[in-house]
């Protein structure tokens, strides 16, 4: 296999420990192939990445060890329509089953396509004949079709990091047929869960009359595509090494000192309506109300990192969380005990393993999530001799793998409170058994397995037959 070219909305330096997420997942495979990582610079410029507001886009390049980073700027107008408007105002809420929050402004889709065309024009001159292209996430669904229209013949794969909803919800998007046709321009497509994979296959059957082609492949729009259910993994060794590093150890020791008489529960999330944060806080309040023995003994540390605060839906959640936390602390708090420690800021990734290890229970309770790597990080960070308990929403993609977690329906406040109480009371032997099984799953399906499995599937994709036109949107 030739060089790996990763494409995502944002680009991160894989050498930095704090990069996290996609950077950690892709870092090793990009380093192995001397790869290229391409995407938006995160900067806005009046010329929209072009020398004079038109023509070919200006590409910024830098070397990060063996990996080349290449980025383009966006104009303020493109940012508003492509990123704020369509990606996060339409696709994010709909893909998380929140049609009520979607803004189907007709102008957004034009900006979304325009930026994908900009990316295609900027990326094409950087490609080599033997490159393998791996595109990531919902911002760039049409990118393969735009590259094909410019003559790109290399294998192109796509991985969706967020959920894919059922066909009826997808069909609510104006132009959904155009969008899903763009997905079918990829040779291999990865989804976080079997549920998401099945939703895609049902859609192309019902809406595009796709036919099974054997081996998990489908024939649709005169092409053969290979969709896979392939949950993203964690670099377990890397995260466990992070847990033993000075910053994490210092955090662990400080937490143990400050909460020596308490059982700590932890939640680490971006501030987003998909994470179920108000429901989680209500469940913790219900725990204190129904189980008086938890008062003075249980403390919830909830970190909600800032996210898209210029969108009204996020401002509403912020105010609701502040009100809920204040009410619980006012109703149950004592001079020497605050039930909820709520922080609306980001905690450095290097410190998180220490926080996880010092916690008896992790609350990972989204209303809908593609995967949620916090669940996996919590497991990896635990002391196997005295591990904590994972309380996990059945609506997180991770629930398909992490069967030994305590599953909850986050909409069921009383049921969630009862499960949290069970987690707090769980004995050492059961905690060890559950943790051992969960950690074995993490190691069996880690980030290296994820990368290798997807790239193997993509490498097997045959180039389109000569003379057959590429799918155009």
Outline of the structure:
The protein is of the alpha/beta class and 473 residues long. It contains 16 helices and 16 strands.
Give short descriptive properties of this protein:
single chain; 473 residues; alpha/beta; Rossmann fold; 2 domains; ten-stranded mixed β-sheet; six-stranded parallel β-sheet; 16 helices; 42% helix; globular
Task: Write structural notes for this entry.
The protein folds into 2 domains: 4-233 and 449-459, Glycogen Phosphorylase B (Rossmann fold); 236-444, Glycogen Phosphorylase B (Rossmann fold, 3-Layer(aba) Sandwich). Helices cover 42% and strands 19% of the residues. It has 16 helices and 16 strands. Helix 11 links the parallel strand 12 (298-305) and strand 13 (340-343). It is globular and about 65 Å long.
- The shape is globular
The counted number of beta strands is 16
In terms of structural class, how would the helical and strand content be classed?
A: alpha/beta
CATH C-level class of the largest domain is: Alpha Beta
In DSSP terms, counting alpha (H) and pi (I) runs of 4 or more, how many helices? 16
Would you tell me which CATH topology of the largest domain applies? Rossmann fold
Poorly predicted runs of 5 or more residues: 463-470
How would you summarize the topology of this molecule?
Elements lengths: L3 E7 L10 H13 L2 E9 L15 E5 L2 E8 L1 H20 L10 H18 L8 E5 L6 H7 L6 E5 L6 H4 L5 H8 L4 E4 L2 H15 L2 E4 L2 E4 L2 E7 L6 H9 L1 H13 L4 E8 L6 H14 L7 E8 L6 H21 L7 E4 L8 H6 L3 E4 L8 H9 L7 E5 L12 E3 L4 H13 L2 H17 L2 H13 L14
Parallel strand pairs: 1-2, 1-5, 2-4, 5-6, 6-7, 7-10, 11-12, 11-14, 12-13, 14-15, 15-16
Antiparallel strand pairs: 3-4, 8-9, 9-10
Helix pairs in contact: 2-3, 3-4, 10-11, 10-14
